[in-house]
Design goal:
Strand content: under 5%
CATH architecture of the largest domain: Up-down Bundle
Radius of gyration: 20 Å
Shape: globular
Distance between the termini: 22 Å
Largest sheet: 2 strands, antiparallel
Helix content: over 70%
Number of domains: 2
Structural class: mainly alpha
């Protein structure tokens, strides 16, 4: 890969995830401070991204891949997205704000797949080259969080202005990215959704895992939607900056996955991931901004194990079970079920729980965090009892 191409792809990934990190993490805090939103309204707004996740495969598979060069459609989506992010700052009511965020999410989520397509099309060895390009996305998310925390703008519209500016920049940059012409001429709705992978459900271990993956997205929704409002409410300073430790942890732990996957197997890794969810919410339930701040840090840093050991391992497990022929469909189905269906359920449910534990302008956060901890515990018990995977050669990943 040429140096100029590598630079452009790295910049693309950096900006792609900078945008997401700039508005998404602190949106709940912004809605409380500026729109006086309820927990249910915040949860509903976070569900917009889940809805977009369920719809975007159709857009990418049936429209973008068939008729447009990936970099061009990505540029147009980001430019329109910049306008919607700016519009979000002019909204004064939660209901209207929801529709703006839903519209934006429907534009943004397809750009994740499109940016991956642009990157993969330029690679001769994606297995080795893609991680070194994708890591700039994690770096972009971290930089966005650090900037927001250090500038003290978590509660105001500056986060959306920042995301809008970068979105416009990436939109313009997209038009000079390497050309990635349309290619999926024979795409149809079933392939776009990944229904070819339904054959995997004939294997009981994968079906048990698949159900667990959807259910564990409910605890995940609590973290994404309400961790930042929680940390701000208890006066944990520079919360957005400190929350980026979760992404640092994610980047570090992902390096250990291939080694551990070989040594301890998929079941133990998934169990470790689910156990980490329980520990995270116990830390949040009993932590505070003073003597118990170490528990808050621990809950944030556990993100690496929570996410990598369940979801990244889950993607690897899905790919190995699917095989070469249907692996893309299987990954698409897994994403649809988790970040689509699972997160949609979780965002609404988490908002309901937060409202049930509100007293005036404050919340009983200990009771709130007990709920995802109990759910994670229930999923853990379910998984231990019913997941019985045979040791098979095709589950081993050779480095």
């Amino acid at each position: 890969m040429k140096t100029n191409t590598r630079f452009l792809l790295s910049a693309m990934m950096f900006l792609e995830y900078f945008i997401w990190g700039a508005w998404y993490v602190t949106m709940g805090t912004y809605m409380v401070s500026n729109l006086h939103a309820t927990g249910l309204e915040i949860g509903a707004t976070y569900s917009a991204l889940a809805i977009a996740t369920m719809i975007s495969p159709f857009f990418v598979g049936l429209i973008a891949d068939r008729f447009f060069a990936a970099q061009r459609i990505m540029g147009i989506l980001h430019l329109i997205g910049a306008l919607l992010l700016f519009l979000a700052t002019r909204i004064e009511h939660s209901n209207t704000f929801y529709w703006v965020i839903l519209s934006y999410s429907l534009l943004y989520m397809p750009t994740i797949a499109l940016s991956n397509s642009v990157a993969f099309s330029q690679m001769t060895d994606p297995g080795k080259q893609f991680p070194w390009i994708r890591v700039f996305g994690t770096l972009g998310w971290i930089v966005a969080g650090v900037l927001i925390g250090q500038l003290g703008i978590e509660k105001n519209s500056s986060t959306f202005y920042m995301a809008a500016t970068v979105s416009a920049g990436l939109g313009l940059l997209s038009f000079v990215l390497p050309n990635t012409p349309p290619k999926a001429q024979n795409a149809d709705a079933s392939k776009a959704l990944g229904t070819e992978a339904f054959v995997l459900f004939k294997e009981r271990p994968y079906l048990i895992f698949f159900i667990a993956a959807i259910l564990v997205c409910i605890p995940l929704s609590f973290y994404y939607g309400f961790a930042n409002p929680f940390l701000n409410e208890i006066h944990f300073s520079n919360a957005a900056s400190k929350m980026t430790l979760g992404q640092v942890s994610e980047a570090l732990f992902i390096l250990a996955i291939p080694f551990l996957f070989n040594r301890i197997g998929v079941k133990k890794m998934l169990l470790m991931g689910m156990t980490a969810w329980i520990l995270r919410y116990i830390c949040f339930a009993y932590g505070n901004a003073e003597a118990g701040s170490w528990m808050l840090y621990a809950g944030i840093i556990l993100h690496g194990i929570c996410y990598d050991f369940f979801f990244v391992t889950g993607y690897m497990y899905t790919e190995k079970k699917a095989g070469e022929k249907i692996k893309n469909a299987a990954q698409g189905l897994f994403t649809f079920a988790t970040y689509g269906v699972g997160m949609f359920i979780g965002t609404w449910f988490s908002g309901y729980i937060v409202d049930k534990n509100q007293t005036g302008d404050t919340h009983n956060w200990q009771n709130i965090w007990y709920v995802p901890a109990y759910i994670a515990l229930a999923v853990l018990i379910y998984f231990i009892l019913f997941f019985k995977e045979k040791k098979e050669k095709h589950l081993i990943i050779n480095n």
